[in-house]
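Quick start: read one record
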Amino acid sequence: MKVREIMTRNIEAVDAQATVRDVAELMRRLDVGVIPVVEQNRVAGVITDRDVCLRCVADNRNATHTAAREIMSSDVRTASEDDDVRDAANLMKRDQIRRLVVVDSEDRAVGMVTLGDLAVHCNDGNVTADALEEISRPCEPARGI
């Protein structure tokens, strides 16, 4: 099975110059926890609801005057539409991430694949169970929670 068969299409992205407030409002409107950030139509990063909280709110930044570029996670893991779902799941497991931006051959965001997509669409329950187990494994050192 290919990533294109399970990914969410028609995702929205923001320009790196967008304000954090604009990103947060888009997250609320779309009811999502991650938004790709683009520069010159290519994926430059992602902003998660956690990034907004920790890199903007906790740092006492003004969300109206802080650009997405300033708080985005720029070390983005992506998948291709033509990648096998197992490869995408293995990447998610290895890097303990719940969402992958799907890009075309020119690094433009064309979709998103999530742990939920694996659970709903993947016929092999072992792929989903293995991914969930590894993604959920506590970081080292233990956080004491």
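The chain has six helices and seven strands.
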